[in-house]
Amino acid sequence: MEGSMKALSFLPLVLSAVLLLSGCTLTEKYSKNNAAAAAWISANDRQPAATNFEGVYYSPDWGIVALNQRDGKLTGSIAHFHITGIVSGKSAYALLVDDEWVEHTMILTRKSSEIVEGSYSSFVPYSKVDSLPVHLDRIVD
């Protein structure tokens, strides 16, 4: 009985150490995720914006999508994600962020004044191999 009591007295110390170590690992993961996302955006920021993506759209897969564009920067929302990114030439490069974690990367192009298409990836940086299509129909200017 005494041995099991001693073991239980160490339990809070062991749990604290595990939580502390996992916190460092989580911080490192967020750092790597954010660095990879920033590098991907930077690598695609090669030209001035040559089109405007601003507007409110509907996607059958994502629901309502709001895009704002100013000086080549893209912001907005899609589903529960916050969008941040850039417009380079006729393409938009977007990060879909949930609670400071870049969950998806997305590349969009304007097909007409009413339609934006592209693809998204669950990888950071974007991976064409696992990408899935995105279709947005403008509902509000």
Topology:
Layout: H1 2-44, E1 55-59, E2 63-70, E3 73-78, E4 81-88, E5 91-98, E6 101-110, E7 115-121, E8 132-140
Antiparallel strand pairs: 1-2, 1-8, 2-3, 3-4, 4-5, 5-6, 6-7, 7-8
Q: Can you tag this structure with a few keywords?
A:
141 residues, alpha+beta, Lipocalin, globular
In the sheet with the most strands, the strands line up as 1-2-3-4-5-6-7-8
Query: Structural class of the secondary elements?
Result: alpha+beta
Beta percentage is: 35-45%
SSE topology string: HEEEEEEEE
Query: What is the average per-residue confidence, as pLDDT, rounded to a whole number?
Result: 89
The CATH topology annotation reads as Lipocalin
Number of helices: 1
Number of domains: 1
Beginning-to-end CA distance, first to last residue? 73 Å
Estimate the helix proportion, in percent: 25-40%
- Second rung of CATH, namely the architecture: Beta Barrel
What oligomeric state do the depicted chains represent?
Answer: single chain
Globular, elongated, flat, extended or rod-shaped: what is the shape? globular
Parts with pLDDT < 50 across at least 5 consecutive residues: none
Textual characterization of the structure:
The protein is an alpha+beta fold and 141 residues long. It has one domain: Lipocalin. It contains one helix and eight strands, in the order αββββββββ. An eight-stranded antiparallel beta barrel has the order 1-2-3-4-5-6-7-8.
